Amino acid sequence: MSAPIRKARKRRWFTICAITASAALVALPAGAAPGHDSSPFGARTLTQLAYQRDRSTSSVTAEAVTQDGDGDDGDDGNEADEIAEGADQYAEARTSPGIVAPGAYGAAWSSLNKLPSTGGSWRNVTDLPYNSDDSRYRDYDSNSSGGSGYVTGRIAAMAADDDGYVYAGSAGGGVWRSQGGGGRWKPISDRLSSQSTGALALDGGGRLWLGTGEASTNADAYLGSGVYVLSNPHDGTFSSRSRVGGDELESTTIHELRFGGGKVWAATSAGVWSHSAKKYSGAWKLEFAPNPGYLPGGSLASDPDAPYKNIANDIAIDPKDPSKVVLAVGWRSGDDYNGFYTKDSDGTWTRITSGLGDLPSDADDVGNVTFARSADGSRYYAIDQSPEQLNTNPDSGLEGIYVSKSGSPAGPWTKIADYKGLASDGSALTSSGYMPGVQAWYNQFLTVDPADPEHVYAGLEEVYETKDGGSTWSTVGPYWNFGFSCWNIDPAKQTGDCHQTTHSDQHGVAIGRYHGKSFVYVGNDGGVYKRPVDGRQDASGHATDWTSLNDGTIDTLQYYSVGIGKDVDHGGVSVTGGLQDNGQSLLRSNDTVMGSNFGGDGGDTLTDPANGCNIAEEYVYLAVQVTQNCAVNDGSWVDDPSKITSYSVAPPDNETGEARFIAPLAADAKNSSTWIAGGRHVWVQTHGYAIRSGDEWTSAYDLGAGHTATAVAASGGKVYAAWCGPCNNQGFTRGIAVGNADGTGWHDITLPATGAAGTVPNRYLSGFAIDPTNADHVYLTVNGFSRHWTEGPGAGVGHVFESKDGGTTWTDISDNLPDVPADSAVVTPGGGLAVATDLGVVYRAPGRTTWQRVGSLPAVAVLQLKLSPNGRTLYAATHGRGIYTIGVRGLK
Known about the structure:
Distance between the termini: 58 Å
Number of strands: 61
Oligomer: single chain
Strand content: 25-35%
Largest sheet: 5 strands, mixed
Strand order of the largest sheet: 6-38-37-36-35
Radius of gyration: 25 Å
Helix content: under 10%
């Protein structure tokens, strides 16, 4: 087929503590690209990216930390910027207007577990395979046929032993175990207060160590509750009793756990710590923090930059002398403290300024770093991401890959790879603006074959392999197959002669054995994949033997939204939802495998209750696509564009960049043909799923320069819109506007200064729920933490508010609700109120004032709630454990 395929969209985020930059290359759907450009990253123009980047400043939350720190890195026009912006915004919702004190999520989890429970139990509806290459959905905005196969949510860390046991730590869905070399997974950390994984490591005695708090600095990464150890990982499960030390590492992220000299070392967002690896009691020892005044309890702890001042990335321990340790410390966007440190003879940690060889010592060139050493102690390897490259080079942020042939982490080091060399070794990322290492701040792993010190696997956006110590490299796991001559969109040919690859954006790696054979396991934004360590390659250096281990028994899918509509073809309902870097999933009532009908990052979702194949799906920044046939397509549009059945219908604020990364989209509760979209403006269109152009939107109201909508809702033509602007810690403000879909009656609600009981806090306003019997009766959910944890101006108290006069006045109805970020709400039949929080779902029964916990979900964020078309079932979109349902009648 001669026509070029548009490279589906992929999204990116950045989260460290409260993160909003997704860790995958953003797969842009074709429809998002102006003029249907064949570029895979055409959905965002350079101007829009630059505008968003310039507006952004980072924030930190006690659970998630956005790591874009400076917010003015300059635009390079690639996905890495988009991910960083997304990360900022995810964090802003949970942190602004101030810095959140450590321990907020732990306290909330404890309070939640003390609530009485409703009846009923949750059922996972997405616990089946999810095929990103489903041949049914090869429409213009799909990434199907890219070669990733079965996928699940982001995997941040991997571990494997020689008995066939494999452990996968997910970004937000806990740790999973397989005892058969991969597959048939079981969760083993559901009892912990944090389901965010930063590091997994097996020590010499076979014990499994877990560092919680994902350190990818991605948009949706959450802080952790410390380090845990499992003495019998083949059979046991993690519990709070298995925590190592005290609460010293609570509310941090953990990048790596390393062992040496009888100690376990932790590289965290609050410096480098150590603990006895034999005795689990006793406090962790702070080994080194470059700026201790910014740590909790320090004189500068409340400074907005505090979360970025003590970031440690890895620890290298000399195998010949465990007393010789090198620390890699530094914030990915750059800071004066960035560099490598070692101890002087007097025990003082000092920056290494010379003698490293090719490995940089200048702060501008040391960012995110990963070490790996060979089993025989003869080699040390390192990946280094450069803040200078990140800020100035639009193609890549990678400084290089290095080897120390002395086996000592002190070097001397020799560079063995750079981004240009990797791009020429079979990479799919050869275009200016998106080349290997462009997201090296987010994507990194490194490991050495235990049987061969010169056999190395490195992960950036893709997976690379060298068998000769770095003299030559192969891209064994390319980003995708689009652009290769072997690719074909025809379902009959699958991807032509191309072999399956892995999902993009690599984070975790491990080598283990099963039935006497060695395998390498990689974790990325699409889950877990494996291949033989000494696997096969084709003439291009691409592996021919990757196997997806995402068999449906591991569900770590990170949903932002959920939509439900009747399945008119098969009966029952169709369930769809937008995902972090895994597009839009679609589960029809007769499916045994979910398909993906849109690619990239899936944001908000609208689904016609009367027909589940009528779907509107947001990419990012209000880049909305619509289909009326579930986007079923055999790919013939490549030769005949008239056969495209999904359409780009973005409101104008998408073009100008005046919308949130995940922007609000809603249908009128009384008229599903009237849609509301929020950017700077409140946009309305009345053609429902028959809309075919962004020109069909009209502006009902201008929220004002610098203001962007955070939530919208409508019923019977009455519209509520919440906004923020600025949305970060530097002058955070919020507001509510109310009016009619026809553009009449709009006015801003006066929200009194917070402080008095019942006033709406000066925090992120996340959602509305309108009483279906009275549009003037509305509920409001408020994100972030209350004043007890947030020291910013006007943080106030409360998470759920009620108005009976159309938003003119509000009453705090939080009562016994735990102090936890609230994300959305829905009014159930009969007048009950269900609220989604960052730690599960709560419910207030009709006529009552107190809250109950709904079921017993793990400590996972629930970002959206929706009711089934008949109102009898509640659907919860979790950001880490898939989609769950529970019967409304059971909520008593």
